[in-house]
Amino acid sequence: MKHYRPHIFVVVALAIVLSSGWQGTLRNILTDLRFAWVSRPAVGDIVVIAIDAPSIEKIGVWPWPRSLHADLLRRLEIAGVRDIVFDVDFSAPSDAASDQAFVEALQAAGGSVVLPSFKQPGADGSDGTAIYINRPLKQFGEHSWTAVVNVAVEPNGLVRRYPFGENLDEQFLPSMGAVLAGQYAAKRKPFLIDFGIRTASIPKVSYIDVLRGDKATLTRLRDKKVIIGGTALELGDRFSIPNGGVVSGPLLQALAAESILQNRTLQWTSDIVTLAGLCIISLVMMFS
């Protein structure tokens, strides 16, 4: 009886992959394995200020009045942060007094604040192509910058790719991650986020600790870039990522920025290159 070598089964498996169009799935699997096996820490220049469950509980109301964000901005200015980015929707008016307090805080910040813009499907009953764009209110936009927070979700529900920016109403806006990294250009292609960067290594502080002026917390923020956004489960801003991970919106933006800062804006090889590589592997195994 003949003894079949394992190489034969590998070659057969590769042949099935080549003939069935599964190379995209195989590419995803290999990429995710690489992220799982090879990890690296965050640079640490970007800090997430988390609107977390303890902050919501201690403040005692939700949604928060924008006067709280105004107070937070003043605390951050005292702490000496470099850039301030909000992953919080400012496209609808709140009570007039709170909105005015936030305008005054933005003015005092001197243009160092970035607020989000995003696009979403239009009204129900449309043909599916209508897009509605949420931008910061005009009185906020006059004293701040804006950046896009949209990310593409793959058919299997995972987020892998991230853009340097998008055209909204024929105007190019950089993405929030690119703004945090300080690198963006209209013609740069979306990239694969390096999920090998350990999310636990991204510095995080609680919103309530900053708001209360906790000395140790404010010291940690000096000369840092900060992104403020919801991390509490009840806020629902969650994204599925490779290898079974789930991250909050601001943490995903920070991961994208870290990928840019570490020159890890990864790109997949083309299908032709992938197929050629698999063919070479198959031939080598056959001749071996």
Shape: globular
Mean pLDDT: 86
Number of DSSP helical runs: 11
Tell me about the largest β-sheet. Answer: 7 strands, mixed
- Fraction of residues in helices? 40-55%
Described by its quaternary structure, the protein is single chain
In total, the number of strands is 13
Quickly describe the structure.
The chain is α/β, with parallel strands linked by helices and 288 residues long. Helices cover 41% and strands 20% of the residues.
Question: Would you mind describing this structure in some detail?
Answer:
Helices cover 41% and strands 20% of the residues. The protein has eleven helices and 13 strands. It has helices at residues 6-20, 23-37, 53-59, 66-79, 96-109, 138-141, 176-181, 207-211, 215-221, 249-261, 271-287; strands at residues 46-51, 83-87, 113-121, 131-134, 145-148, 161-162, 165-168, 171-174, 191-192, 204-206, 225-230, 238-241, 245-248. Helix 1 (6-20) packs antiparallel against helix 11 (271-287). It starts with 5 loop residues before the first helix and ends with a helix.
